[in-house]
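Ticket #4471: complex job returned nothing on first submit. Input attached below:
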Amino acid sequence: MDEHTAANAATHPAAHAAAHGAEHAPHELPNIFGLLHKVFPESPLTQFLHQWETVIFTLLAAAIITLIFGVAGKRREMIPSGLQNFCEALTEGLSGLVTGLLGHHGPKHFPFLATIFVYLLLMNWTGIVPFMKSPTSMWSTTLAIGLTTMIYVQYHGIKEQGFVRYVKHMAGNPQNMIGLFLIPLMLPINFILELLAMPFSLSLRLFANVSSEDRLLFNFAGIGLNSPFYIGFVFQLFGNMLAILFSVIQAFVFMLLTTVYLSLILPHDDHHEETPEGGEGEPLAPGPLNISTNPKGVH
Amino acid sequence: MEPNTALAFSLPIGLAIAAHGSSLGLGNAVAAAMDATARQPEASKTILVNMMAGCALIEACTLYALVFGFSLMGKI
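Support reply: We reran it on our side without changes. The output follows.
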């Protein structure tokens, strides 16, 4: 009893101090709301802003995207220039990639995928701007985006191939007796893989990359400040270059993997048409249907 | 051995092992992609995109180790 309380007394302050230290030890560059909270610790406004800083920067990124693409799409000219040109080049490049992977499903899912890319890119890059923080360095943000992606993919999987075929796809498309026996094994595995592992791995990859990037920048800044004549500033420059490059790659990889998941779950029984451009799938499908229901066949 | 000491020793070593494995995997992936590009230079864009997706999956394993390392670092 005595020993127990002693151990409790010994561990509790230590644990508390460790948690406190972990909470307050900075691991990324300070942002404007954190600094405001440090200057005015008592004000409820700065406390509120500091608490919700991730959400505020997320909304800021969304607002910037809306503004840029709204302005670019306002006056559409035949020969684009400036902002419109840039947006069109970006859209066309992404559209070519998505359509190449998804085939004729591409144009339908393109808005979601391109939005994810631009949104994540902007949120990753926010960490490089002084006094700002990248929201994707928190797991809550990336997990939300990963869950959204999972729901989008599964919803379109059910909608486009029908519920029965969706369940059959999840059961591993059983062809013979062995396949039928494996259903109790395949069904949970596929559900765990597609419903749990997919958002988990997508979000954790992005979070780990961006947060370690921010830690890297913070540590390089510390080296730069502590070195004689601030010569360590070179590291900061190098870290910034690395952060710019990796942000693009991570946003791109998130979009690419979402596209791959979509292409795996969408029905792909139309091998007879090899045209990469979409739209031609529709006229072919009603053809045989029309003939079979044609009253001319009865004549 | 104290738990703190054990963690302080094993976290960097564990991360190093994870990084070693994933660097071997990345080396294989990039070598195969280079081979494929040399054989078929016109398909280089597709190969690059596919290689990038694979590389992201491979290096994610190291990053999982990094995340666990950071989360366990608070216990030292």
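The first helix of chain A runs from residue 2 to 24. Closing as resolved unless it happens again.
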